[in-house]
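ok so i was messing around last nite and threw this chain in just to see what happens. nothing serious, just curious
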Amino acid sequence: MRKRVALYTRVSTSGQTTENQRRELEAVAARSGWDIVHVFEDSGISGAKGRDKRPQFDAVCKGATRREFDMVMAWSVDRLGRSLQDLVAFINELAAVGCDLYLHQQALDTSTPSGRAMFQMCGVFAEFERGMIRERVAAGLGRAKAQGKTLGRPKAGAEVEARIRKLHGGGMGKLKIARTLGVGVSVVQRILAAA
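result:
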């Protein structure tokens, strides 16, 4: 059975065209004997935008989940997104439904053993990136504590706490108390839960 593929192309500005991307991908599909069953194109949309801001990228994800095609083809990794984490999440989503990925510029084809190995390396680097971010956040928090900065949610003063309890005891709802005192609803909930 011939492989059913979907093309995904994207350009960041409306002055650019996806024609070159599409022509190259169509040539690869023809040489490989793959049938193009869908073409998705996001035009004038940055790769830094999330899935919810890229309607055709979202359609690719949904089409893969519905098993409308066996592989997604894209010109380059940066056409899919700007973050390694987002790319790995996308590839994991495809893998979960048995859909492969072909990236022309990176010569990555997850239907081949070498392509799968390369994908696994991407996962290792994404995990490394997450670890580095966690370490930087922890170091920043440690530095802030060492400088005597108070971390976490700001505390409501004793007077505010007393007023919250009094208004609640008088039958006022949490939302109205928060509006009346100019504090967040979560502050009101936390103080009443502790009481």
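not much to say yet. DSSP finds eight helices and five strands in the chain.
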